[in-house]
Write a structure and sequence with these properties.
43% helix, mainly alpha, 2 strands, 3% strand
Length: 135
């Protein structure tokens, strides 16, 4: 059985890819914190079923970006992205809705979750190697 067929490892890989893409989106939000009329974006967290399969319907993580007002064409369904429901709550007069404190908290949480996913992935690989006698 190839290692790519193990659903738990596939779920962890998808989760790590999601964290990498989310880090990029959050970094863009921070970089555009002074851009007029910029609305912050975020990704919808992938859902997994009990067997580790993708329960959100998509086979892979789509890399499409959206803004709160328009959609830019991408490779996956638009449901993989979260609209900022609080946009406009702290919108500055220039129309920028980026809250740097919120973005930094999301970046920190994303980094910790990514570290946890990579730790689980590497430990799972180590267990598999021990099981086949190659550790």
């Amino acid at each position: 059985m190839p290692i790519h067929d193990i659903s738990a490892l596939a779920a962890l890989r998808t989760r790590m890819q999601w964290h990498q893409e989310r880090q990029r989106v959050l970094a863009e939000n921070i970089a555009n914190s002074d851009t007029p009329n910029f609305k912050p974006r975020d990704l919808v967290e992938p859902k997994f079923d009990a067997q580790g399969g993708n329960a959100s319907g998509g086979a892979t993580l789509a890399m499409m970006r959206t803004t709160s007002g328009q959609t830019i064409a991408g490779s996956g369904p638009a449901s993989n992205f979260d609209q900022n429901r609080h946009a406009g709550f702290q919108t500055r007069p220039a129309g920028n809705a980026v809250n740097l404190e919120d973005q930094m908290l999301k970046v920190s949480a994303n980094q910790m979750d990514y570290a946890a996913a990579t730790s689980l992935y590497s430990r799972s690989l180590r267990l598999l190697k021990m099981a086949v006698g190659k550790a």
